[in-house]
Amino acid sequence: MSDWRVRAVRASKRPFTRPVTPAGGAPAEPAPEHSMDPRPDQPVEHVSLERSVVDAAVYRDGHRVQSSANLADVYRELPGKPGTMAWIGLYRPAEAQLLEAAERFNLHELAVEDAIVAHQRPKLERYGDTLFVVLRAARYLDDVEEVDFGEIHLFVGPDFVLTVRHSQAPDLSAVRRRLETDPELLALGPEAVLYAVLDAVVDGYAPVIAGLQHDIDEIETEVFGGDPQVSRRIYELSREVIEFQRATRPLLEIMKSLEAGFGKYGTDEELQRYLRDVADHATYAAERVDGFRQMLQNILTVNATLVSQRQNEEMKQLAEAGHAQNDEIKKISSWAAILFAPTLIGTVYGMNFDTMPELHWAFGYPFAIALMALVCTSLYLVFKRRDWL
User: Which residues lie below 8 Å from residue 356, measured CB to CB, with a gap of 6+?
Assistant: First the structure.
């Protein structure tokens, strides 16, 4: 094994991506368009690669002329045959499978390492006469109201296209069927396949945009309805929008790079129009996503303001309740002090001692009553002046 293959294998020790598991249980595998089961007489060295092949076909002048699970057969049809192109689709291949395909199509080691490791940002890189394109697909899951992101890698050469999917979306079998029903477009070569995949990815953003818009509308209602769980939902939706932004924003640079190479690489004029249309749709998607992010920031600010207002109202109510409670305590304390004065005087004069002063005084009783009245009146006036009563 060559040095770059060794490095690629070492770089691929972690898995490509988390499998998407439907509600029913085990991860769903895409149904191949054509049967790709290895033949009993097929060499052992080809069996591992064909297990990940969704479809492999050779096209000449826009028409399918060969389908084979044996990629060696597909590759033999290419050299020296004008108007001939191979399109091979792989789904979650192992590193050894990608390395074998890379050796057959002479792919650059850095691009192969990116395809093995996966988890790449959307980008376009040119290695000689081969384009390496990474795209992030997205789909909206209505049942859980979440956005599921996928990843697809494309190797676009002069006479071949190798697509490596690490997710269920987009459905490239539908893209292949669409192109096969339009031989004139497919006859434009590998760039036509690149256009169709780009168009499918960008078109897949439309339901996601509609779903996110619906979620934002619901959040606005919940914010003004005082839902206590809305802050968490805003945060989760903001994370999805940011991830969606990371998928759409680099796509604009990809389209600009393709447009810049129209003249240099002789892109067909009709295909140029198609690619510009995809660029327009990608720009619209990116602008909507940017708008969603700004809307969520504004909603988060409004929600924080409303929460602060509710907290202030609650604090005000607590303060008013505390103030009212303090008034009641003042009243109780005031009357307790007023009533305590005659009790103290009565208690003193009620002690049974013969030698107490004024015990046999004729005016002792009226004096005690008058003293009680004077003290109580004085305390009442003092508390009244201080608004305790």
Answer: none
Locate 172 and state its tokens: 């490239």
pLDDT digits (tens, 9 = 90+) for 303-351: 888 877 777 877 888 877 877 788 778 778 878 877 777 777 777 766 6
Residue type, position 145, single letter? E
Distance CA 151, CA 247 (A): 10
Rg (CA), the chain: 40
Closest CA to 103 of 133, 135, 73, 71: 71
- Taken in order 374, 379, 384, 389, the sign of the CA dihedral is negative
CB 135, CB 122: distance < 8 Å:
yes
Closest by Cα among 137, 119, 197, 139 to 22:
139
Mean pLDDT for the stretch of residues 152-169: 89
The pTM score is 0.69
Pick from 240, 247, 225, 337: nearest CA to 292: 240
Neighbours of 283 (CB within 10 A): 15
Helix (H) or strand (E) holding 59: strand 53-60
In angstroms, the CA 164 to CA 116 distance is 9
Q: Which two tokens stand for residue 140?
A: 């909206």
Mean pLDDT throughout 118-128?
89
Least confident interval from 11-20, 257-266, 379-388? 11-20
Distance from the Cα of residue 15 to its chain's centroid = 21
Q: What is the pLDDT of residue 372?
A: 80
Write the DSSP symbol of residue 147. E
160-165 and 84-91 beta bridge pairing: parallel
Q: Which two tokens stand for residue 44?
A: 């052992």
Gap between the Cα atoms of 388 and 26, Å rounded: 74
Is the pLDDT at 203 greater than 80, yes or no? yes
pLDDT exceeds 90 at position 152: yes
